[in-house]
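Data availability (excerpt). The following record was deposited with the supplementary files.
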Amino acid sequence: MTSVRDHYENHLAPFYSWLSGGVDEAFARGQAEVAAVGLLDTDSAGYALDLGAGFGMHAIPLARQGWSVLAIDSSALLLEELRAHPDGDSVTTVQDDLLRFPQYISGCPDAILCMGDTLTHLPDRTVVRSLFALVSEHLPVGGRLVLSFRDYSKALEGPDRFILVKSDESRVFTCFLEYKEDTVRVHDILHQRSEGSWLMRVSAYEKLRLAPEWVQGQLECYGLSVRQEAGLAGLVRVIAVRR
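Predicted structure:
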């Protein structure tokens, strides 16, 4: 089993935008999501921090709307893809662990995003609480934290643990979920056609089983006003505002 960083850099990053439906479709979904939480409202542009930004699914739409965006991710490949986008020059990128964000920000961000299931990639609940403490410390009054993550707290059983994520004529990507008490081991399986043959690559990593109610309770402990709602693609979306 590999670390989250190695799993993304060596297994997922080279075709992550394909998994997301292609760059154009991903940016359209990202724009719809930041609009749904009010970040594209007239005169809303400010300073945003995107944690686990990937190839810029949310950072690029914010930058297009006039936001000053700092995007942090552990994957050099995904950040390179972000910078290569025509609008990528307007986003400041940093390759590092997302909990090290305080050393890179200039002032207090008006909005902090941690979306696309990034939260469940953290190693344990103690680190999640540390992230929430840092966010609370650096958000100004009225500043917003926007999270989206998958609820793994209810274990799937039997064949439901096998999930076909995406496929086309040359690639088939599936995953298998193996539940533990506090985590779920995700086995990502890629079948790729090459010179008339199918090649298989497998990599596995751990994700946290975070119940939305637990996340909300932790954020409230740090002085944030919290609401939950349905996000895109079956994810839970949480919006927390600094009181």
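Summary of structural features: The first helix runs from residue 4 to 12.
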